[in-house]
Specification:
Radius of gyration: 23 Å
Order of helices and strands: EEHHEEEEEEEEEEEEHH
CATH class of the largest domain: Mainly Beta
Oligomer: single chain
Strand content: 25-35%
Strand order of the largest sheet: 2-3-14-9-11
CATH topology of the largest domain: Deoxyuridine 5'-Triphosphate Nucleotidohydrolase, Chain A
Number of helices: 4
Helix content: 10-25%
CATH architecture of the largest domain: Distorted Sandwich
Number of strands: 14
C-alpha cells in the first residue's frame, strides 16, 4: 500500500520514522522503561514531524490569541516554515504542517503528539483526518495546561501520525464474556498469574536468579506462559520506512 506525502513548500518536510527513544525512558534506572514492549512499540508506531527551529512560548492564562507569546531563536525577520502560531486562543499553540497526505481509499490519518512523550506545561491534542480524499492541509495543536513558559528545541518531534482504517471500529462487535467460557485462556492466565506472584516474591527476597533475570520476558519474547510460541509475526521492533522520492 502506498502512503503519499505532497510538500506544500520548497523545503523538504522534516519527517522521519518515529524515534524509539524517549528521554524520560532513558532516565529510568538501567533504562528499565524499555522493558515494557507495548511502550517501546508505540514509540515507533508511525512517523514524526519535527520543528525546524527552537523557540519558547509563554501563556498568561487568557483566552485571546495574543495571550500566547512566541519567541524564536532565529534572527528577527528570518523566513520560517513550520514554526508555531497562536491564532486560536484559549492557550492553544498551532503548528501548520506544510504537506498533504494521501492514504488509500477507506484509510484516515491519526495525528497526535509524540507517543509517550512528556512535556511539562503543555499537552498535544489529537485529530483524525480523512486523507483519502481531502485536499486540505491540517495542523498539529498543543494546549497549555497552565500559565507559564514551554520550550521546544530544533529537531524536536511536535507531531506523530499513522494511517488507520476509517471503518475499524464499526467492524468490531464488542462483547463481554466470562473468562471461564475459554478454559484454555483461563488456564494460561492462571499459569501466568501464579508465576508472576512467585517471581515477585523471589525478586523481593533478592533470590539470585530472579535478580539476574530482572523481569519476566514471556510477553516480550512472544511466548505463552508455558513457553510455547504465541504467534509467528510477534514484533519487538518496527521497521517503518522513511518517505522517499520515487525513482524516475
Amino acid at each position: 500500500m502506498r502512503l503519499t506525502l505532497y510538500p506544500l513548500s520548497n523545503e523538504e518536510p522534516p519527517i522521519r520514522p518515529a524515534d524509539s527513544r524517549r528521554q524520560w525512558m532513558d532516565d529510568t534506572p538501567e533504562s528499565f522503561a524499555y522493558r515494557c514492549l507495548p511502550l517501546a512499540i508505540a514509540n515507533q508506531h508511525g512517523w514524526e514531524v519535527l520543528t525546524p527551529t527552537a523557540f519558547e512560548a509563554e501563556w498568561n492564562g487568557g483566552n485571546r490569541p495574543e495571550d500566547v507569546i512566541i519567541r524564536f531563536d532565529t534572527p528577527p525577520g528570518a523566513r520560517l516554515t513550520g514554526g508555531p502560531l497562536a491564532n486560536f486562543g484559549s492557550g492553544v499553540l498551532t503548528f501548520e504542517l506544510h504537506f498533504l497526505i494521501r492514504t488509500p481509499p477507506g484509510w484516515n490519518t491519526f495525528v497526535t503528539g509524540p507517543m509517550n512523550g512528556l512535556k511539562h506545561g503543555i499537552a498535544p491534542l489529537s485529530g483524525v483526518i480523512e486523507t483519502d480524499w481531502s485536499p486540505y492541509s491540517f495542523t498539529m495543536n498543543w494546549r497549555f495546561t497552565r500559565p507559564g513558559k514551554v520550550r521546544f528545541e530544533a529537531g524536536e518531534a511536535i507531531a506523530h501520525f499513522f494511517p488507520v482504517r476509517r471503518d475499524v471500529f464499526e467492524r468490531f462487535d464488542p462483547v463481554i464474556e466470562n473468562i471461564h467460557s475459554e478454559p484454555r485462556t483461563f488456564e494460561q492466565f492462571e499459569t501466568w498469574r501464579k508465576s508472576r506472584g512467585d517471581f515477585m516474591k523471589r525478586l523481593a527476597a533478592l533470590e539470585d536468579h530472579a535478580v539476574e533475570e530482572k523481569w519476566q520476558k514471556t510477553y516480550y519474547r512472544g511466548l505463552r506462559p508455558d513457553g510455547s510460541t504465541a504467534i509467528r509475526d510477534h514484533k519487538i521492533k518496527l521497521r517503518v520506512k522513511p518517505f522517499r522520492k520515487p525513482a524516475k
